[in-house]
Amino acid sequence: MLMVRSLVEQMIPAFCSLFMGPWSDKFGRKPLLYASFTGYICVYFLLAGISFASTKFTLNPWLFMFAYAPVMFSGGTCALITGIFCNVNDVTTEKNRAIRMGITEGVLFAGIFVGSISSSYILQWTNSSTVFAISGLSCLLGLLYIWLCVSETVDCGEFEGSKFRELFRFDLVCDMVKTSFTPRPDNRRAIIWLTLSGLVLSLALMEGNMTVFFLFTRAKFGWTIREYTIYESVSLVVQMVGSLLALTILKKFFNVSDSMLTALAFGSDCLQNVARTLANTPRDLYIGVGLGVMKSISGPMGRSVVSNVTPQDEIGKIFSLVTALESISPLGSAPLYTIIYSNTIDTFPSAFNAVSTGGTFLCFIWMLIAYVLEKGLPRVPYNNLQET
What we know:
By secondary structure, the chain is mainly α. The protein has 18 helices and no strands.
């Protein structure tokens, strides 16, 4: 059931996002946000209804999978992330884009933290139907906020015909692939692909690591679910607060470039994985949390690097591609990490952490190369360079 849910929530929306990103460059960012929020509103209220019905009748558990069907057609998280970061890119300049994207990522982490902590108490005090209903109402409030307070950032102009029909044009996907590989001046294509490769690989490593990390802590340190939850909560708070502070200090006061900040984030992630690999006590894992204080800014900083070397009318195509690749990459890394852990649990149970160390170090090297290439770029915005 979890595998089917992953297919519905990740694979199919990732495929849909390949069409949605290029479409948003022509017809706007808000429709992506409308679609994503509407999909999740339907999901949560369907889950609330099915959960309530299950208290009255004996239901087939597969019925819960039916509730996730709206995500298949709304783009899910892929459309949400693409729409959010494209909108942030449209309303910012190269000077303030990195900090704004960092704040956006921090708010997402804050939402995950608050939801994770509060949901267990709400479930304890009430029931699962209430938890799902509150989630649906939260998404509804988000949809109302987008409708009333968020302005469209793309000039759609006059268009004759059906915009919905334009969404399913395969030539837009071909154009997205062509855009991603098109030659660009001053090594910009190399910078884009070094950054995208780092973002996709680091997320795949993180998701694969999460698949078996609890099993590792339970086997080596005898941790319970409660101890593991405390560790994850501390890690989330440290990353959220530490990354925002580091971003503010390094970017605002020392003017460190986005590519170097991304490299530092990958380096911080690598150090945390080293600490996990060598950990002999739970204290070592918490030391690793401190070493990984900057790891969460790799996503927004990487997207900022890409947006700085990509024309405004192409950013939706690039962002939708990276979001799609990020969504499907865990489907390969999760089984791989499971195989590694299963075959090394008796000899070297931390082997999967060593794999993460090597992978994040590779991401760090890629971003250092991107930083060196970025140093040779003209000091003018890319759109201005095109006009000249």
